[in-house]
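Note to self: the last two entries modelled the partners one at a time, which told us nothing about the interface. This time every component goes in together.
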Amino acid sequence: MTIQQLIDQIRIKKSFLAVGLDVDLNKIPQHLLELEDPIFEFNKAIIDATHDLAVAYKPNTAFYEAYGIKGWMSLQKTIHYINENYPNIFTIADAKRGDIGNTSSMYAKAFFEDLNFDSVTVAPYMGKDSVEPFLAFENKHTIMLALTSNEGAFDFQTLNVDGKELYKHVLETSKTWKNSENLMYVVGATKAEYFTEIRKIVPDSFLLVPGVGAQGGSLSEVCKYGMNTTVGLLINSSRAIIYASNGTDFVEKARAEALKMQQEMSAIISLKFKV
Amino acid sequence: MTIQQLIDQIRIKKSFLAVGLDVDLNKIPQHLLELEDPIFEFNKAIIDATHDLAVAYKPNTAFYEAYGIKGWMSLQKTIHYINENYPNIFTIADAKRGDIGNTSSMYAKAFFEDLNFDSVTVAPYMGKDSVEPFLAFENKHTIMLALTSNEGAFDFQTLNVDGKELYKHVLETSKTWKNSENLMYVVGATKAEYFTEIRKIVPDSFLLVPGVGAQGGSLSEVCKYGMNTTVGLLINSSRAIIYASNGTDFVEKARAEALKMQQEMSAIISLKFKV
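The predicted structure of the combined assembly is written out below.
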């Protein structure tokens, strides 16, 4: 998917919601456990119920790997299901990969070719040659960790490097890499006040924003400081939507939560872009 | 496996060699491609031929994920094969994972429980709560990136933070985390001169050292500056051993390369420990 196609979808749906598919068998409705592939069935139900409200789905690979081969099969079925049935959806493999060059090429192959995701999240610690292999794929997007939503973000990401926080160096340096136009960045919603500074460095890039909802971030604050002229945000919500209920009404409850977020987003878009 | 058991194996085998199982179907002997699971068959042959010379095997997960479910099955068969046939071998899932707390717990479950590896490599960028879930597992080991062997290591890892390189902050900070005795660190062999400084911060920890051989690092230099009183090093070699030949003699050639490294290591151990 191209960036323009993603922007178009945001305009059409008046939504910049990414639904995180972090499926834990202990948290899904127990009646699904009787089915052959409960994780896929859960995802399918959530996707069918929310695809008109969300522009992106983001399975976190950890939740699939934890179930071994069965989990990897559920992931594969999920991404195929989305690609076949909802081709306008932007798909994110939340994998946080990164390794030396020839190894990162294999990860890129895994997520962009074998699984056919539109994007994958990567970690920056190993630098340029660990990320550029991902950037080489046309119309695929590499979402690099910049400032994350967790407590540990303050351990290293905000360390002072020559008068400037490390995450700012990460953002600036990444702009010099080959095909850097294929970069997006992870910026946690729990740090809304940082968005102003971040937008000075990457005014045009899409930012994937976790941490709204369960982790305490505010949608309106993030939009106030983080939105750019094409919206430029993908707000992720996982638990608040997919675990809205663990009963037989989980589909309706998930849709209701997604709708609530989409309506907030629609209001913000209307206000900001006077449409 | 406990640290003491690993140290015992190093003494018994006079080796601190870790063989990297980074299997690329384009590089293995082509006659194996006729078999049902060429990756596993290749690994099995390499392991059978080198298990008395190596103390550890390190499959890099990227090379398995690139082949989708079939790749993941090859990885599972490989780790099961090692655990069943060579229980004294230390196993390393080179996965470089790291995410927020509840997600890192799922990764830890994937590698320590589902696949039953002794250790997994992790990335530090997301800080304490992204690593501690791995450290909570008893007799499992978490190998965190400190200073890597690639060119991009100099993008961020050596940035000056208050007069000290970032990777030193990473090492120091990680020592304050819960169950930090379960930490080991990745330090690239291409940066042998850094080992002296690193040993001042983590004198007792095991260091996993990639970059000897194909990437240009020197075994004797690394040992000179990096060894501690229990050896404290695991030297990884991947391509130099497993791709020593891509003909029908690949097993003999791989063994010959591993033997060469083991003999160098044995000589170093004898010299250093006067045994």
